[in-house]
Design goal:
2 domains; seven-stranded mixed β-sheet; 359 residues; Aspartate Aminotransferase, domain 2; 9 helices; globular; alpha/beta; Aspartate Aminotransferase, domain 1
């Protein structure tokens, strides 16, 4: 069948040129007679893949020399626990800003391993906006301040980097590589791969070197960022296929003009869809306009009884995985880097025709 427009929040669409290149190299990577999935992670072939991927990521994000880049297993959720073990002792405090499902999950996991404090929580507003930073209650002795710059489920996004006396820790799973980023503002950045990087199962951690080597006694070796950094993320066999695909995505992003070019594209895609929603009396977005996500856009229909027909007809039109998260309902369109403007235009045209027939 023909390719469809995949609006999934994750695992998400991967750029078609990346998939085509992976297909072409699947059984024989550059004349070595083996697939990347068969290459030894210690061999010179895979080592060249790993080194190129890190170099390209550093170039894309302009990562300073004082930061280490790790390619780890377990996705972003594993880092919810890894971070307390690496950055704090059990009796230490850490501050968490809760703006949706993922920051809430990070807080719950943090509370298992240290004194996790809620610096701010948007629950009273049903996680539809970001609390004013002037109201945040920051602990003067916090080991770190954790937040989620983009909440994948609720569609709330920080369009600023918070000020923090403690090292700033950010779950950037659904926003990384969507625009330029000042890495030096952060102590640690982590991201699951399955949205803007590549296949599920891989996580990338970017950590300031001075924060490494602080892991508490008893930290399992696989969770210790300093030991992973020393081993080049290869304490055991890493997720080689995911690492390889991530490298291809990084190359593709550089070919597109880098993150400044992606920022312009992503801004335009989001503006296109929000304009269609706001210009209609049939669709609605619940998020405060100043903190709407570029990457994940939830919307509801005037009559929830039409949700089923909307999804069925959208699928017939080649517009897939638009169903909202079960905790929110309605619809959600994820507009990651791999989603072209043409896909957003097709979605808007479908929405307008559906409203004409059912509004």
């Amino acid at each position: 069948m023909d390719r469809v427009y995949n609006f999934s929040a994750g695992p998400a669409a991967i750029p078609l040129p990346v998939l085509e290149r992976a297909r072409d190299e699947l059984v024989d990577w550059r004349g070595c007679g083996m697939s990347v999935m068969e290459l030894s992670h210690r061999g010179k072939e895979f080592m060249s893949i790993a080194e190129r991927a890190e170099a390209d990521l550093r170039r894309l994000l302009d990562i300073p020399n004082g930061y280490r880049v790790l390619f780890l297993q377990g996705g972003a959720t594993a880092q919810f626990g890894n971070i307390p073990f690496n950055l704090a002792r059990a009796e230490d405090k850490a501050d968490y800003v809760v703006t949706g499902s993922w920051s809430k999950k990070a807080l719950a996991e943090g509370r298992r391993f240290l004194n996790a404090q809620v610096a701010a929580d948007s629950a009273p507003n049903r996680h539809t906006e970001i609390p004013d930073p002037a109201t945040w209650e920051l602990s003067p002795d916090a080991a770190y301040l954790h937040y989620c710059p983009n909440e994948t489920i609720g569609g709330v996004e920080f369009h600023f980097v918070p000020e923090s006396p403690a090292p700033l820790v950010a779950d950037m799973s659904s926003t990384i590589l969507s625009r330029p980023l000042d890495v030096e503002r952060f102590g640690l950045i982590y991201a699951g791969a399955q949205k803007n990087i590549g296949p599920a199962g891989l996580a990338i951690v970017i950590a300031r070197e001075e924060l490494l080597g602080r892991a508490r006694e008893g930290t399992p070796v696989m969770m210790d960022y300093a030991q992973q950094a020393e081993a080049g993320s290869m304490l055991n066999t890493p997720p080689t296929w995911g690492w390889y695909i991530a490298g291809l995505v990084f190359e593709w992003l550089l070919e597109q003009g880098g993150l400044a070019a992606m920022e312009a594209r992503n801004r335009r895609k989001a503006e296109t869809l929000y304009a269609a929603i706001d210009g209609s009396g049939f669709y609605a977005n619940p998020v405060a306009p100043h903190c709407r996500s570029w990457m994940n856009i939830p919307f509801t229909l005037a009559d929830p009884a039409l949700d089923g027909p909307f999804l069925e007809q959208a699928r017939a039109a080649g517009l897939l995985t638009l169903k909202g998260h079960r905790s929110v309902g309605g619809m959600r369109a994820s507009l990651y880097n791999a989603m072209p403007q043409e896909g957003v235009d097709a979605l808007v045209a479908f929405m307008q025709e559906f409203e004409r027939r059912h509004g």
